[in-house]
Amino acid sequence: VCGGLVLWIDKQQHSKDSVFFRDGVRRIDFVLSYVDDKDGERKQERRKVYEANLEKVGLELEIEDKSESEDGKTSFVKIHAPWEVLATYADVLKIKVPFKVNDIPDNSEMPMNWLSTPFRLPEHIMHPEPDFFTAPFNKSKSDFFLIDNKDTFFPPSTRNRIVYYILSRCSYFRDECGDKDKKGIKRLLNNSTYTAAFPLHDSRYWKRSRDANCESERFSLYKHWAGFLSFFKEQPLNLVRKYYGEKIGIYFAWLGFYTEMLLFAAIVGTICFIYGFLTYDDNEWSKEICSEAVGGKIVMCPLCDKKCGYWKLNSTCNSSWQSHLFDNVGTVFFAIFMGIWVTLFLEFWKRRQARLEYEWDLVDFEEEQQQLQLRPEYETKCTNRKMNRITQEMEPYLPITSKCARTCLSGATVLFWISLIIACIIGVIAYRLAVYAAFASIMKDSPTTHLQVVGPFITPQLATSVTASCINFVIIMILNLMYERVAVWITDMEIPKTHLEYENKLTVKMFLFQFVNYYSSCFYVAFFKGKFVGYPGDYAYMFGSKLRNEECDPGGCLIELTTQLVIVMTGKQVWGNIQEALVPWLMNWWGSRKARSHPESLYSRWEQDHDLQGFGQLGLFYEYLEMVIQFGFITLFVASFPLAPLMALINNIIEVRVDAWKLTTQFRRPVAAKAHSIGAWQEILNGMAVLSVVTNAFIVAFTSDMIPRLVYMYAYQPEGEMNMKGYINNSLSVFNISAIPPANKPEDGENPFWFNSSITTCRYRDYRYPPGHEKEYSHTMQFWHILAAKLAFIIIMEHVVFLVKFFVAWMIPDVPSDVRARVKRERYLVQEYLHNYEVEKLKVQLSQNTHDECSCAPMIYPSLPKHEVLSECL
């Protein structure tokens, strides 16, 4: 007896870490949790009505009282969906299920497939499933489908998706006054009637479940997918899709494909950077800047009013050498290459996506989602109804006047926040202009205007650029945090009809905001800084203020653009990984600190998952947004930094495993959802791909010094010479110091020790006639030749890249031919098998009817012989 009692107690303890009801048979498909508080009676009434309605629908509930939970406060409602409920709603949601094994031979085996063997996972981990022909489930024809076991026919991800669909549409308010608005689990979570609603993980992530009937797929994902040591292995996408649903599976498929394609861009970018490093000694213009004979004798005009003194050209020696690493002939090649790479990436992804759509039964999903899956918020807030022309049923709708008003308010809010970003950027520009004078004044005592305390490589320009970039990054992060809440609020206000429409609207708002937020400072450095400066005696000022517009180094603004890009891109990636991994881990560690003192056997499966963080409806949205912003950095401004794809590649290798790790270990299991593509992000990527060609062409033409150098070498060098000697002297104009207005002259004590009255002229970066010329200080012909060459280069580069892009897009079909053939054959076979099924069913029914009639024939024709009775019956 004592032994049996011990075994019974042990079984009860072990059963707490289970995904089944207490009977060990019915699977827990969803869990609701709640805590009684001061408003308990009202919430208790809501829960009572809601749970009663769930049981009316057919769901089975089991309550875990708060006295049995580890904190003594939280109660849990475990939900099981029996076969009848699953079959009914699978029919409603048109979930595709198998009806026949695929008999089409698979010819997708690639030649030299053995090369990928080290990167593959074992077959049992990749979760290969028999390839079936599938069709939307029909409850009335359930014997048509391949149903071996009703308990396992629908996988857990499909089960929790069906249950969540029911939870989202079940009422919690007694309909005594005709009020039909109060329904759905989301509203119950918002008003704290329930504290959480989530499906269960099937096991602990670090070990398999003790239950032999449990799949322990979470453990397999953690071991073979979420570990960083598996970074070189393929992702088990089929298992990810089975466990988390197609929407999350598509994201990781896209992220993995993007990372693979980045490898090629990173290799070419690294080669271009190495080329710049190897041609270091051939950099004639940097040699001239650094030499005492040229750069040491050229006196430059002050870069700001009052606080900036005269300076020698060789003070920019280091920045000119650094600029050569990124501003060379290889940069032009790499800009053209990236324009073609981005086209290949998008076209090959379309093919990969089309294959996944077929393999994961998503080919016709969009139409189903648009017609059937209305958002519960839309159904509750839209009281007006009209006939749907397609379904011929009454459905809620939003009046056009209300929709226009909401859209206008939403657009005005977005414009306001974009204007706020632009105002912040103007503030950073004003900071750059103001602080440059301070840095120049501090550094004036050094013979080379370097800050000896910090190091010989810090110049006023570099110090200003780095500090301004850091301040800009901080502003970006603060504005992001503020705008996220605003974007969600105004999207909710618009009341989108479907989940797809909701995500698309939010995507556009967030991307527009972050595009301006992240890229505006780079656009300023690339296309505005140093372009509207004027010249000594006629400088341009910011909005008529006393802040003079910034000038570029004699070596150009490209190195500053590179600095800006590196700081913002690297800072965003590092901060993103810390925020994604460290914050959930710390919150989970703190939240489960009490439970860690309990034995594992008493720490139930639903309590373990309750202590994790909720993934949220927009969890995947922010992952896409992060990667798309990174995509913009490596395409829009890649001409200034060929190592950007390499940095993105390293980040993404980490990102895949960090996302997998946090999803598997730190978050509750998300509700499975379907998606046939990456949605609105596809069009955003296409737009950025086109814009990247334009921006890189303008960067090479106007931000770098590539075109002026080529014009000088081919048109202004002495005849017979094809080198860059004399380029620096040729690219600087001359101005009389005596003609500088008092408002622009340096104050007493601001000039360096070597400056004296014998120096009568200074140089500045421009192509203008010298003093004494009949066209004094107006642009020379060389200026117009260079401008014409820049415009010609932009036109030629854009046309070449766009022609190649369109040709490549035309050559590569969006859907592979074998996939197209398989889709057509599946549709044909579905129709054929359904027809044969109906015919066979009709034959059986007629045969049964005939048998019934014949069995009654002797009573109808008692006087006839037996053979005549049979003949009469037939």
Automatic annotation (TrEMBL):
Gene Ontology terms, MF aspect: chloride channel activity; protein dimerization activity
Leader sequence segment: none
Keyword Transmembrane helix: yes
Main location class: membrane
Membrane-topology descriptor: Multi-pass membrane protein
Pfam families: Anoct_dimer, Anoctamin
Name of the protein in question: Anoctamin
Originating species: Dicentrarchus labrax (European seabass)
